[in-house]
Amino acid sequence: MKRTALAFVLVALIVSAYAGGAQAADTETLTGEFIWNNEGQSGEIEAIFTGTTDGHWDVAFHFIWEDEPHIWAGTAEGSLTDGDLKGSVITDHESKGTFVFEGTFKDGKFTGTHASMRSGERDDTGTMTLNR
Question: In total, how many domains does the chain have?
Fold first, then answer.
């Protein structure tokens, strides 16, 4: 009898752990514009944020550059409503460069900057906005 009860409890714990892990993560899709200062170009950008833990996100930026679609993915931390947000993404180029971004959400709009990281040095590349 004790073994049956113990087995039942273990199965219940496994099922509830699996069900909890199977829940969809919070996902926010924001749209906006990037400006690339070095090239004098701008374009539309879509950012998909998927919550990992409180205030931490996986992020994927989708945009078109020189008629080619790109997805740069990485992580971010901060608020998607009001307050600071910063993160870094890896490019989808063969060289796999790192770009960082930072800025602030106010009234549902993000205004920030982006930069390339080369040999540990920050090279400011432009600005971007995102809207809820």
Answer: 1
